[in-house]
Design brief:
heterodimer, A: 394 residues, alpha/beta, Rossmann fold, 2 domains, seven-stranded mixed beta sheet, six-stranded mixed beta sheet, 13 helices, 42% helix, 18% strand, B: 291 residues, eight-stranded mixed beta sheet, globular
């Protein structure tokens, strides 16, 4: 059944379809509607779940940890400052290997305070041991939440489904809502191997003495690496059930491209339009969109980008003192590879700054120029910056 | 009373607490009172650290530790999960020290009590951050030396009174709030049983002397705890549906100096300072109707 849904609604409906048993969340712009919709579902009896209306995001994730450890399917949603307040518990959730699923409506970080979109919030916690998926549209939001539970529960890893604040969270798009019976078939009821249960006492979250701490981290790293295969496998199962394809990356007219754009999230769909316009003129421009940022699809990106002459990364985040995170990880992917494309990084769309077709074309032109001259003069640049306001020539 | 207690040690011996630890005695008694049908959410702190160096554990009941400030929030999640699974008869117990309760965990505790989760919150109060090496918390009493309230030429120990957390929780309208002491195990056990029989959020605040932190010999732990009650420095009461009832009334109150002088953390106090503390204790005792 197709319905016009915002990203927030898609996330809430997906949680309902997943038959979550415990929801623990705190409102924050632009995620609030997720919380409101789920509260309605529970209030109407459409969803048989406990909804803990916590007093902070820190407690939201803490309560999810308690609920997941007791063996129930749990869900939370947040954005920005809320994710930052949760950050301590993000590491605890992954360290305890609890399959919690979270929807994160991407929003910038204060200061200055900004409620608008960029991806600095989830990028800031990329080392927290959560699988991170970035969605291009609202259909993908719904589908990714369903897939996230399969991945989370089969590997005992928490999964964060990220979607751009306002651009997706508040924009309605036609979304195909699968039937409950189909979802039940795809996503069977969940059973944690060793839950908190007086019949069989377990100790969860002990002190990791130096003789074992490193091994715990290594096991987390291995599970996260294994989640690559699991994401692919679950993507295949999803295709069988719902006829929509998902992988670690999405390639768009990229096979023979000389110049490639690389991005994440809703920028993917804007970039596709630009790619089409270049293709119309016979120029070999393509796009690669990273869907899974953690685990990072190293092999897939080497395959997808390796034969291009130059790649422009468009990303809504920056690591001050370094560069954008997607650029850094992509550059690192080619570290021991003989043939690597030239790479440019374009920081853009921070704090809700619009990324227009002109900006995307600028990134294509820069990559084309780099390909022509065979070198990159300036690797990290800003797009759409009001240079007069900065007072510096960037 | 004895026959009602679980004979089995649910908090196993062999853990790494200091000799004469009041907090671990409180936990041991609490589990004996509550029995096996519990799930414990433990905050970071002495009890957590000494009981679970991987791969060892002292807990013979299901136990989870997530962080310092969120025992009440984790307990909220466990309780909601049990509800959603239709599991009845399992009591959720949050355990935290005074730092994890009165300071960093106060928000999570307030939230969980306000939401009305069915759980028992136990604060083992050793009156400072003992796990990190004796730093003041808001539950450290007036005048006490700690490493962050040192006795110097200008400042002489903690210059603020102890935060009254039981009163804060009672103000939330929690159906059962009580104070307890490891020196009065029967009183402590009765209160935990009452908490277990109460539906909704209940709060037990247990006074737990700490030999290394309070600076006294470990064989004097019960004596110190008892003198706190006998002098009125720590009052044992319960608040049931808003009504306060003192459960142990010392027949004739001992001077507070008897309690203070057993502990090195108060050894710098002058007679005038002790008299000031005595005045505060007297006032509070009068207020609560303790002789």
């Amino acid at each position: 059944m197709k319905q016009a849904l915002t990203g927030n609604e898609a996330a809430a409906i997906a949680a309902k379809l997943a038959r979550v048993k415990v929801i623990s969340a705190y409102p924050i712009t632009p995620q609030t509607a997720v919380v409101e919709r789920l509260a309605e579902f529970v209030a109407n009896g459409e969803l048989d779940a406990e909804f803990i209306k916590v007093e902070s995001e820190h407690s939201a994730l803490s309560a999810c940890i308690g609920a997941a450890a007791t063996g129930t399917r749990t869900f939370t949603a947040t954005s920005s400052q809320g994710l930052m307040l949760m950050s301590e518990m993000l590491f605890v959730a992954s360290g305890l290997r609890l399959p919690i699923v979270m929807a994160n409506a991407n929003r910038s970080l204060s200061a200055p305070l900004s409620i608008w979109c960029d991806q600095q919030d989830s990028m800031a916690v990329r080392d927290s041991g959560w699988v991170q998926l970035y969605c291009e549209n609202n259909q993908e939001v719904l589908d990714s939440v369903l897939q996230a539970y399969r991945v989370a529960e089969e590997l005992l890893l928490p999964v964060m489904v990220c979607f751009d604040g306002f651009i997706l969270s508040h924009t309605a798009e036609p979304v195909d809502i699968p039937g409950q019976a189909e979802v039940d078939e795809f996503l069977p009821p969940y059973k944690l191997p060793n839950p908190l249960d007086p019949c069989r006492p377990v100790t969860m979250g002990p002190v990791g003495v130096p003789e074992c701490y490193e091994e715990f981290r290594c096991m987390l790293q291995e599970a996260t690496r294994a989640s690559k295969e699991k994401l692919i496998e679950v993507g295949r199962a999803f295709w069988k059930h719902f006829r929509r394809r998902y992988g670690l990356i999405e390639r768009y007219r990229s096979n023979d491209a000389d110049v490639l754009l690389l991005t994440m999230g809703s920028l993917g769909s804007s970039a596709k339009d630009i790619v089409d316009s270049y293709r119309k003129r016979g120029e070999k421009v393509g796009l690669v969109r990273v869907r899974s940022f953690r685990p990072f699809p190293v092999k897939e990106l080497i395959d997808a980008l390796g034969s291009a002459k130059a790649v422009s990364v468009l990303e809504k985040d920056v690591s001050p003192g370094s560069a954008g995170a997607l650029f850094l990880d992509t550059a690192a992917a080619f570290i021991n590879v003989k043939r690597a494309p030239l790479m440019l990084d374009f920081i853009c769309g921070l704090g809700g700054r619009d990324v227009s077709s002109l900006h995307i074309r600028e990134a294509v032109r820069a990559a084309t120029r780099a390909a022509e001259i065979g070198e990159v003069r300036k690797a990290v640049r800003w797009l759409g910056l009001r240079e007069k306001l900065v007072g510096l020539r960037i | 009373m004895r026959e009602e207690l679980v004979e089995e040690e649910l908090f196993a011996p062999g853990h790494r607490a200091c000799a004469g630890c009041g907090a671990t005695l409180a936990v041991r008694l609490a589990l004996k009172a509550l029995g096996k049908n519990v799930i414990v959410a433990n905050a970071t702190g002495c009890v957590e650290v000494i009981s679970t160096p991987y791969p060892e554990t002292a807990w013979r009941v299901p136990w989870i530790h997530a962080a310092f400030e969120n025992a009440a929030a984790v307990a909220s999640g466990v309780e909601a999960a049990l509800k959603s699974l239709g599991r009845r008869g399992v009591k959720v117990v949050a355990i935290a020290g005074d730092g994890g309760t009165a300071d960093i965990g106060l928000q999570a505790l307030s939230g969980a009590v306000e939401r009305g989760h069915d759980f028992i919150y136990i604060c083992y109060d050793n009156e400072a951050y003992m796990n990190t090496g004796i730093q003041r918390s808001s539950a450290t009493p007036f005048g006490a030396w700690t490493t962050t309230t040192p006795v110097g030429r200008v400042k002489r120990g903690k210059d603020r009174p102890k935060k009254d957390v039981p009163a804060i929780i009672a103000a939330h309208g929690a159906p059962y709030v009580a104070t307890a002491s490891v020196a009065y195990p029967i009183d402590l056990i009765k209160k935990l049983r009452k908490a277990a029989a109460t539906e909704g959020p209940t709060y037990i605040h247990i006074h737990c002397p700490c030999p290394p932190g309070w600076r006294f010999d470990s064989d004097k732990m019960i004596e110190v705890a008892r003198l706190a009650v006998l002098s009125g420095a720590w009052i044992l009461y319960e608040i049931k549906n808003g009504r306060l009832n003192v459960t142990i009334k010392p027949p004739k109150r001992r001077p507070v100096s008897d309690y203070l002088k057993m502990q090195g953390r108060f050894k710098h106090l002058t007679d005038a300072e002790i008299a000031e503390i005595q005045r505060t204790v007297d006032e509070r005792c009068r207020h609560l109707g303790v002789g």
